[in-house]
Amino acid sequence: MEKLEFKFPSQALLAAAPPALCGVVGSGNLEILVRSGVDRQICEISVNTSARGFGETWRAVLATFAASQAVGGTSIAINDMGATPAVVSLRLAQALADYRGGAQ
């Protein structure tokens, strides 16, 4: 397993909410936990992945997410078992929608 840690500037999410869990760790999939973070202008993301050597790909996908969504003030944990960037983006959007109470 490889552990990656990222911090991205992002617009603040308007309101903190109870933690939201989305996805299931399994062959070719991942799970994402979104919870309240410390800094309202930063999104902290930790990734535990079985696919070693893809740090720059993770950085690109997660930077795009943090730039396109107001996720400042969140802490996101990702457990990955080989998901593609498209699946990562989909699960991030689903987890954020759950965290916001279903609002997109």
Automatic annotation (TrEMBL):
InterPro entries the record matches: Mal_deCO2ase/Cit_lyase_ACP, Malonate_deCO2ase_dsu
One Pfam family this sequence matches: ACP
PTM notes: Covalently binds the prosthetic group of malonate decarboxylase.
Keyword DNA repair: no
UniProt protein name: Malonate decarboxylase acyl carrier protein
Subcellular location: Cytoplasm
Lineage: Bacteria, Pseudomonadati, Pseudomonadota, Betaproteobacteria, Rhodocyclales
Coiled-coil stretches noted in the UniProt entry, renumbered to this chain: none
UniProt keywords, alphabetically: Cytoplasm, Phosphoprotein
Cellular component aspect of the GO annotation: cytoplasm
NCBIfam families: malonate_delta (TIGR03130)
Residues bearing the modification O-(phosphoribosyl dephospho-coenzyme A)serine: 27
Keyword Ribonucleoprotein: no
